[in-house]
């Protein structure tokens, strides 16, 4: 469980850092528009880290299930190698899911006529349609 909590805290630090850096840049430069490619990069990092977080929560619930229902076999089932591959699988699955969604969003954005989005942080549905 400590292994998964460490990975979860790393995800939270990355997600918070991404948002705070963008907000600070906006206040220092006093820019209120975001280019479409910057918006796609922000959306990718935001949703990639979010989906990875949910998948890590799922892996943690599986670990908890094994710890409660298979108490004597917990050490033999949840080895360090299995924990590593479960985390790696969570990262890879979230990457595949978000890349497929972002490719659809990219095709939609290429058909748009706007090159800038009038917000300092890009989130789902802010001027992308």
From TrEMBL:
Segments forming domain G-protein coupled receptors family 1 profile: 1-129
Sorted UniProt keywords: Cell membrane, G-protein coupled receptor, Membrane, Olfaction, Receptor, Sensory transduction, Transducer, Transmembrane, Transmembrane helix
GO cellular component terms attached to this protein's record: plasma membrane
UniProt-annotated location(s): Cell membrane
Protein topology in the membrane: Multi-pass membrane protein
Membrane-crossing segments per the record: 47-69, 81-107
Gene3D superfamilies, alphabetized: Rhodopsin 7-helix transmembrane proteins
Coiled-coil ranges (or none): none
GO MF entries: G protein-coupled receptor activity; olfactory receptor activity
Name of protein: G-protein coupled receptors family 1 profile domain-containing protein
The species this protein was found in: Mycteria americana
